[in-house]
A1pp-domain-containing protein (Paraphaeosphaeria sporulosa), 282 residues
Amino acid sequence: MADMQLDEIPTLSLLYKLSRIPLDADHPSPCEPNAAYNDKISIIKADITSLVVDGIVNAANEALLGGGGVDGAIHRAAGPDLVRECRGLNGCEAGDAKITDGYKLPSEKVIHAVGPRWYALSPEDAEAKLKSCYRRGLELAVEHDLKSIAFPAISTGVFSYPNVKACNDALSEVRKFLDEGKGDGLQRIIFCNFLQKDQDIYYKHVSKHFPPVPAPAPEETNAAAKTSTDEADIAAKLPDPPTSEPKDPEEPSAKKQKTEAAADDLVAVDKDEAKGTPKGEL
Ligand code: AR6
């Protein structure tokens, strides 16, 4: 798969400008609109190993020695030097993260976060650990002066965390981190979905946490509403806007529990999905 540059990835501000994100007028967001946040946040559907960013986050396990899903994809793309460095890290606890180089990946660094196993913990403990993965990922990015970081949907594969809850927990923790003023040095925080269902969930729920900034008054609109050439290039690659209200594609209670033994099946499914994902499909 061809690499995807940062300037090919739309910001949330651009997605709002192009009316790609559905808004729920009956349930306005309790959060304050913030233009700087919306310029930082991106949601894309892509293979995370194709992103030319400062850091990508891996959904690893405690051993940090590779596995299935996104972990397998990252290790395959990075080459054997990655596992060599990981061996020296002495593993990592669930809810925590450790950083390595990216080796053959287009991203400079990999942040290996260990998500919770949904089926092994209480929902409260699982939520705390998932949020902690996003926080630790952001903290490590800031400590290492990374300007752009991409997260996969941690724990929603082999570890069975319900997709809608995972999306809301991730978005709320990132919002909290930014509200605490800790992410000012980060220029881009990308939620990188591999599956269309996760992409739909993020599009549906993002406005609760990162609402659009109200449109400027009519006399200011000329400059503000114009789409730049770069934005028009990105917009041209976006899929058509939805014509109906998106539904959450998954009810948590109906979710089939996956086991780690099924990790290889998941890789196979993901590989098939990756083949059908054209570059720039968002
Ligand atoms: N790019 C972006 N996202 C991806 C990619 C990719 N190339 N491949 C899969 N995903 P999972 P977990 C998505 O199972 O649930 C491993 O065996 C996938 O669609 O990779 O945290 C580890 O070694 C899903 O949305 O991670 C651990 O043992 C998300 O990545 C265990 O699985 C996470 O799915 C971790 O389980």
